[in-house]
Amino acid sequence: MKIQPGETKLGFIGTGVMGKSMAGHLIDAGFSLSIYSRTKEKSQPLLDKGATWCESPKAVAENSDVVFAIVGFPSDVREVFLGDEGMLAGAKAGAVLVDMTTSEPSLAVEIYEAAKAKQVHAVDAPVSGGDVGAKNAALSIMIGGDEEIVSALQPCWEAMGKTIVYQGKAGSGQHTKMVNQTLIATGMIGVCEALLYGYKAGLDLETVMKSVSSGAAGSWSLANYGPRMMGNDFDPGFFVEHFIKDMGIALAEARRMQISMPGLALAQQLYISLQAIGHGRDGVQALILALAEMSKIDWTSR
User: Fold this and answer.
1) If both were cysteines, with which of 118, 122, 222, 286 could 282 make a disulfide (CB 3.0 to 4.6 Å apart)?
2) Is the pTM of this model over 0.85?
3) Where are the beta strands (DSSP E) in 42-134?
């Protein structure tokens, strides 16, 4: 299989916070693109760049050699890939269907097997890097599926991401993303608690950041989410409700593998409390609001 701009017809499903940038990079790389999203208005910038609108995931697949999708929840993935109007219903033999949603490893395997029965290739390729990584084409892409197909997709991966790693058979990309989310989940607690401590101690948080962000305590979350927390910027680069979903998947896999993950369980409970006070559609950095409330700190008015 050879994939290259001007010859390979691509499709993209899901043009939300991250998908719109990712799809835009594929157009910029010279690929023709058919698109579908539940809210057509979100796709208008892509249509203005030359993308073709389709009325269903099935129609996208009918018009494409390779289709990428990044949607919300496993139920959305199932509908988009396996539903009556889903991609597999419209895919031709030899087509490639790529799920870039963070979803269940078992569902990735199910899609792979269903696709294989129709002589279609399926790849799971969840991403990390949030809205900033998507905008800058600097995503980390974790990939599971047949290595030959994954390698053929390299021009597409390079248009969207910076760290592109093949992890193994179907489902391996999703398992790797669970490792990623586990690392972020407990790290976010530390970022929030550290900023709350610094504030209550009377320190200037921007000055504190100069000391701690470049040493052993530094992290991607501190560098990228810390300033947003300090600036009361809770716009979603990644939704709280989606992060809760991801942690639920990881905890379910942990139970299946009979391993204890108390740190991840704590993080999920804290995020559920954040959702309960009305921040499910905010960005994950809003966690500081839930932790601040526990100590009766009015973070946004400090």
Assistant:
1) 286
2) yes
3) 52-53, 66-69, 96-99, 121-124, 127-128
